[in-house]
Design brief:
This protein has about 230 residues and is mainly alpha-helical. It has one domain. Strands 1-2 form a two-stranded antiparallel sheet. A hairpin with a 2-residue loop joins strand 1 and strand 2. The termini are far apart.
Amino acid sequence: MLTGVSPLAHIVFAATTALAVWYIYRSAAASRRVLIITLAWLALITAVGMTGFYARNESMPPNMLWLVGPPFLAIAMLLIRRDGQAFLDGLDLRTLTWLHVIRVPIELVLFWLYEAGKIPHLMTFEGRNPDILSGMTAPLVAWYAFRGAELVRPKMLLAWNLICLALVANIVIHGILSAPTPFQQFAFDQPNTAVFYVPFNWLPGFLVPLVVLAHIASIRRLAVTPLTQQIA
């Protein structure tokens, strides 16, 4: 447990991660393979995180690359490979939309981490991070864009996904540039250190990539796949 952070933050964050696992599992038609891979990756980064490996970032490349790099590489492979594309196209759009509600408790946890001195103010909703709006609007978008399982407003859903993808990109950039690595540009007085330690290393190592995956899969379904079908 990260010292100086309230038990409530740990509990809420763990519950949010469990909810995220459930959403991707349900979106993939209750795929046991997806569940096993997800839990195995979480177990791995938990075990490595407990050694303090991710917090040692003086060298180049910094050790945090081994936390954030593999999941984003996996997303790239899904986009390149045919079987990966088929997997993305098979994910349930409505469930992927609901998945983004996890961004509300994540932002609350980030605020508590700021109060504990573990991340900078700019990473909170009071600073330069309006990402909580994505989570707050997700239920409204899911209700308005779908009628039951049927998608009735694809253009609106596409626009929402593009905007929210930009919001998560914003916090990712600020988070990286606020971390105590050779790349640090912001928050030298109170840097972003919480994400190097269990369980909060699940944020850059699992939750953020999952949110990005959900947006990319949705955008592909709503824009890229229909266009390809029209060309064919």
